[in-house]
Amino acid sequence: MTGRPSPHAVIEVIEQAAAKINLALHVTGRLADGYHELDSIVTFANLVDDLHLLPAKVDALSVSGPFAGALGTGPNLAETARDALRALAAARGCDAFPVEIRLVKNLPVASGIGGGSADAAAVLRGLARLWEAPADEADLSRIARTIGADVPMCLASRPLSARGTGEIVEPLAPFPSFDMVLVNPNVAVSTPAVFVALACRDNPPTEPPAAWGTARQAVIHLSRLRNDLESPARSIAPVIGTVLREIAATGALLTRMSGSGATCFGIYDGAEAAERAAAAIADRHPEWYARACRTRYGITGRSP
Ligand code: C5P
Asked: By the number of CB atoms within 10 A of the CB, which of 10, 148, 169, 218 ranks highest?
């Protein structure tokens, strides 16, 4: 690409790629193409990768941050997202000029919290702004699907229900905010391998309540739901069982794995309890990733 920034383009666009948390994840079927039908309750944490998008002479991606070294050498989903949006923007006559993507990788990779998908979604949102691309939400969502099953939900990045293979996204509002701890034992788990190890692919759906209510009421509803990938993920990475036990031992109201693992979460009665739990787990397992956080865009009020 040899284009240049439009005179109206902003100098730098900053986007946050928030950690995705599957509060519940039911596998309800399998499609002819091998993908699985899911029914998931999803929220997003205030733990993020940061993306800086700038006009440049040639396309470039630089990665920094604590988990930069954990990324593979193949194409990054952020670049896949850039190329996919450029194709659409260029087809519509937009000057999708070269960009530098600076990714600050704060979130553990291959860990069930959708970091790569969130990065891709943040690039779609950010480049749509930087390029002033003639692409609406439906266009971005269509592109998102082609990049990965979790990218459409990460585009929304707020409490939602996800069905189909993950692409049917419906916002949940009102939905409470939770004080949480995310714990990852720094063991990467392959999502396809977890789906292969799944024993039952025909589980009942989540049947969410008519109203989620307060955080405490929502925890009661959520405790009746499951993550169907937890058992196959534990068979591949038994340390997940230890992570869940450690979180439960800190007095979490609910403990569960997110996505295909290995990240697990605990929900706590307030921010202080979450901070204390994260500190206790980090103390016992300094090699693990253990962070207190709060989920985004939920209703606040007494927590939980
Ligand atoms: O779409 P994405 O690349 O994130 O999916 C990674 C892998 O997870 C797929 O290759 C597939 O094996 C599995 N998967 C699935 N059903 C889904 C989502 C993912 O089987 N709904």
From this structure: 218
Q: What is the DSSP string of 66-77?
A: TTGGGS-SS--H
Whether 229 is in the pocket of ligand 1, judged by its Cβ within 6 Å, is: no
Q: Which amino acid is at 128?
A: A
pLDDT digits (tens, 9 = 90+) for 264-281: 999 999 999 999 999 999
* Closest ligand 1 atom to 165 CA: 21
Q: Ligand 1: which atom is nearest the Cα of residue 164?
A: 21
Verify whether residue 49 is a known catalytic residue. Answer: no
Query: How is residue 239 written in tokens?
Result: 């340390």
Q: What are phi and psi of 198, to 5 degrees?
A: -70, 130
Distance CA 254, CA 295 (A): 15
Render pLDDT for 28-75 as a digit per residue (tens, 0 to 9). Answer: 999 999 999 999 999 999 999 999 999 999 999 999 999 998 888 778
- With a 6 Å cutoff on the Cβ, whether 67 touches ligand 1 is no
pLDDT recorded at residue 11: 84
Question: SS3 breakdown of the chain: % helix, strand, coil, rounded to 5?
Answer: 30, 25, 40
Crossing angle for the helix pair 115-130 and 137-147, nearest 10 degrees? 140
Note whether 258 and 144 are within 8 A (CB): no
Quick one: which of 91, 167, 80 has its CA closest to 135? 91
Q: What pLDDT is attached to residue 304?
A: 39
Q: Please give the distance, rounded to the nearest whole angstrom, from the Cα atom of residue 122 to the centre of ligand 1.
A: 20
105 is catalytic: no
